[in-house]
Each structure stands twice: as C-alpha cells, then as structure tokens.
Specification:
Oligomer: single chain
Distance between the termini: 62 Å
CATH superfamily of the largest domain: Winged helix-like DNA-binding domain superfamily/Winged helix DNA-binding domain
Largest sheet: none
Shape: elongated
CATH class of the largest domain: Mainly Alpha
Strand content: under 5%
Number of domains: 2
Radius of gyration: 19 Å
Length: 181
C-alpha cells in the first residue's frame, strides 16, 4: 500500500490500515515523546494521544509536505498540550533576556551526554528547549501551543541554555579535578 492509499484507508475506517500506520510509525514517534518526558509511561501516554489525534485529523492532511513531518508536528503539539493542561510548565515567567550565551561547549557533547544534561532541566524549560532547539518550532509556535507569551518562551529557552552551559562547565571542572587526583 502506498502512503496515500494507507491514509485513505485509515480515513475510511479500515482497522488493518490503522494498525499498519501505527506499526510503521510508533517507534520514531515514541522516540520524540521520550525527548519530552522523564519516563516511558508518560511518553507512551503521549504516543497514544498523538495517534488518536492523528487518526481524527487524517482528513486534514494536505499532501503538500511530508506526512512524517505532519505526524511529528501533531505529536509535539499533543505533548505540549498535555503539559499545558496538567500545568506542568514551570510557572517562572521571566522577562525576556537579551544577553548572549556562549553554548559552544554543548557542541562538543555526544548525544548521550547532551540528553543527560537536558533531562536535568526543570520540566518547563526542558519542553521549550527541546521544542525549539531540537524540533525546530519557533518561539511564536511554542507560545501558541502552550498558551504563554512569546517572551516567556524565549526567556525559558535562554535560561535552559544557561543551565546547560553551567552544568557542562561544572562537569568539566569535576572531570579536570578527578584527573589531578
């Protein structure tokens, strides 16, 4: 079945097609969910909510872009909506900062090290950092999805980057001290 045929079969309510769509995409969409959640249970819940939303809105997919890109966007929106509904977003409403931050140290990390540091961020900052830096959403889009101001999104991103830099600098100092022991 082509992608278009699969989509049309799902729209028509074909359960086999729906299962096939799920099986083909659950792995990489689950990986996206894990980037936002601290545990697999919450990630699985978000995955299920995402697929429900995907199935309900398949008719609105206009084959003008990538179907996977559309599903990714739906999934991230579901995840962020879930955080907004549960009021898990940090309530720090900092004013927007304009001071530049040198995050060149982050470029030296491998995936596991960066993931470890991102996981240590407060939930709200983590969500905004991942949505902007990894998934490529603009601050305006994030603000709309989370019902916050664009300035809050920018501020939370600023603070997330600062916290990542500070954590990385601390880890480097600890590593250097351990070398001299």
């Amino acid at each position: 079945m082509t992608e278009e045929e699969l989509i049309n079969a799902c729209i028509e309510g074909n359960q086999r097609a729906c299962k096939e769509l799920y099986e083909q995409n659950k792995g990489w969409l689950y990986a996206i969910c894990l980037r936002y959640h601290k545990n697999g249970i919450d990630a699985q819940d978000s995955l299920q909510e995402s697929f429900i939303t995907i199935y309900r809105n398949l008719h609105s997919f206009k084959a003008q872009g990538s179907f996977k890109g559309w599903m990714r966007k739906v999934t991230v929106r579901c995840i962020l909506s879930r955080f907004r509904k549960k009021n898990k977003l940090a309530e720090n409403n900092f004013e927007s900062q304009t001071e530049p931050i040198d995050i060149s140290l982050l470029n030296t990390l491998d995936k596991e090290e960066l993931t470890f540091l991102i996981e240590r961020l407060p939930t709200g900052r983590k969500q905004i950092f991942v949505a902007h830096a990894i998934d490529g959403f603009s601050h305006k889009e994030i603000a709309e999805m989370l019902s916050i101001s664009e300035g809050t999104s920018k501020s939370q991103f600023f603070h997330a980057r600062r916290e990542l830099r500070e954590a990385l600098e601390k880890e480097i100092v600890i590593a250097k001290n351990m070398e001299h022991e």
